[in-house]
Amino acid sequence: MKKALVVIFLLALLAPGIGNAVETAPRITDREIVERLSRLEEGQRSLEARIDTLDRSLNNRMDALERSLNKRIDDVDARLNDRIDDLRAEMNARFDTLQWTLGLFITIALVILGFVLRLQWQMHRRLTRLETIQEKQGRDLDFVKSLIEKLLPPKGVL
């Protein structure tokens, strides 16, 4: 309870100072209010005009940047297309060379195969002729052998 009395006493002493802390504002007339509002409206209009000007300049800059960027992209695209066309032409030239080389090798292989087959056929013909000659000579030898045997005297006679 003593504490409560001490708190009330302190509040009573400080209460007049608390009331002095709030300052009363001077009275503003309607005319001053209208003048300040008109100045605020003018300031707002000038700010809007500046914002519109900035917006237009930013739009112009953005359009210029967009055109510049589009031009750069088109240039890069054109260069890439040129490089791709060059690579395609080089690749086609290599395929043409490969086609000619492959055709040449196939032709050479067919010519060699033709020579080998012709030689084999000729050797077969010669072998056939030699076999017929050998058979004929074998028959002739048999005939000569039989003639010699007929001409020779019997074994016990001499």
Sheet having the most strands: none
Secondary-structure-derived class: mainly alpha
Radius of gyration: 63 Å
Name the beta content range: under 5%
- Give the beta-strand count: 0
Oligomer: single chain
- Give the overall shape: rod-shaped
Keywords: Membrane, Signal, Transmembrane, Transmembrane helix
Folded structure, characterized:
This protein is an all-alpha fold. Helix content is 89%, strand content 0%. It has a domain at 41-150. It contains two helices and no strands. The longest helix has 122 residues, at 30-151. The protein is rod-shaped. Residues 1-21 form the signal peptide. Keywords: Membrane, Signal, Transmembrane, Transmembrane helix.
